[in-house]
Amino acid sequence: GGTRLMKYEEQERKIYAKYDDKTIRVYQAYNDKIADEAIKLGTFGEHFSLTRMTWIKPSFLWMMYRCGWAEKENQERVLAIDIKREAFDEIVKNSVLSSYKPNLGITEDEWKEEVKNSLVRCQWDPERDIHGKPIGRRSIQLGIRGEAVKKYVNEWIVKITDITDDVKRIKKVLIMKLLKKIYYQKKKST
User: Fold this and answer.
1) What pLDDT does 10 receive?
2) Fewest CB within a 10 Å sphere: which of 1, 56, 141, 178?
3) DSSP conformational letter for 74
4) Residues 20, 17: Cα–Cα separation, whole Å
5) Residue 26: inside a domain, yes or no?
6) Is 176 contained in some domain?
7) 108: how many CB neighbours lie within 10 A of its CB?
8) DSSP E strands: which ranges in 41-104?
9) Which residues contact 131 (CB under 8 A, 6 or more apart)?
10) Which residues on adjacent β-strands are paired with residue 96?
11) What range defines the domain where residue 22 resides?
12) Distance (Å, whole) CA 47 – CA 25
């Protein structure tokens, strides 16, 4: 039981995530309409587009970097979404890298065809620290579309939690610490 960090070997990359035996947590940020509906329904509703690719992120700090700590337009609400572990494993297994690498063992044209036909894209972005600075490892984002989005909404989601208030509290503490640091640096130099 309990939660721990998942290390997922995938082409020399590791996935760090909060998980237990049955679920893994991913993060997404939305506007009030989509978030309110998701909290009420326990899944996404009519304001969520089933026809667009949606990106899920297991990294809390990458999500904070991406949504600007819930301050970017249409990303003012941060949702922690617990999905079935076996679904996440299936998503990763069926993903195609969003950018071509010669070491994939296929030609660029074959890769383009795979991307075109895939329901899941995988992107490795620089992981961030609490201040938004890269920390020297990569963080996975998974883009799902088509049938995968429908399964995500209708089968894979176990629980949705609105963590926006927590996000804002953490941001406030970070700002206070930064201001205190600046204040004491100025005081020392005078």
Assistant:
1) 41
2) 1
3) T
4) 10
5) yes
6) no
7) 11
8) 54-56, 77-84, 96-97
9) 174
10) 121
11) 4-163
12) 22
The amino acid sitting at 50 is L
* Nearest C-alpha neighbor of 52 from the set 70, 74, 71, 32: 74
pLDDT of res. 189: 67
* Banded pLDDT at 9 (limits 50, 70, 90): very low
Length of the chain: 190
Which residues, including other chains, have CB under 8 Å from residue 140's CB and lie 6 or more apart?
10, 13, 15, 57, 58, 59, 92, 122, 123, 124
Q: What is the dihedral of CA 76, 80, 84, 85, to 10 degrees?
A: 110
Instruction: Quote the number of domains for the chain.
Output: 1
Residue 61 CA: distances (Å) to CA of 68, 79, 133, 134, 152: 10, 13, 10, 10, 22
Whether 184 is covered by a domain: the verdict is no
The predicted-structure confidence for 127-152, as pLDDT tens digits, reads as follows 999 999 999 999 999 999 999 999 99
pLDDT at residue number 8? 41
Domain assignment present for 188: no
**Lowest mean pLDDT, pick from 30-34, 54-58, 89-93, 98-102:** 98-102
In sequence order, which residues have a C-beta less than 8 Å from that of residue 168 and are 6 or more positions away?
A: 69, 70
Decide: 121 and 142 in contact? Cβ < 8 Å: yes
Number of CB atoms found within 10 A of residue 41's CB: 14
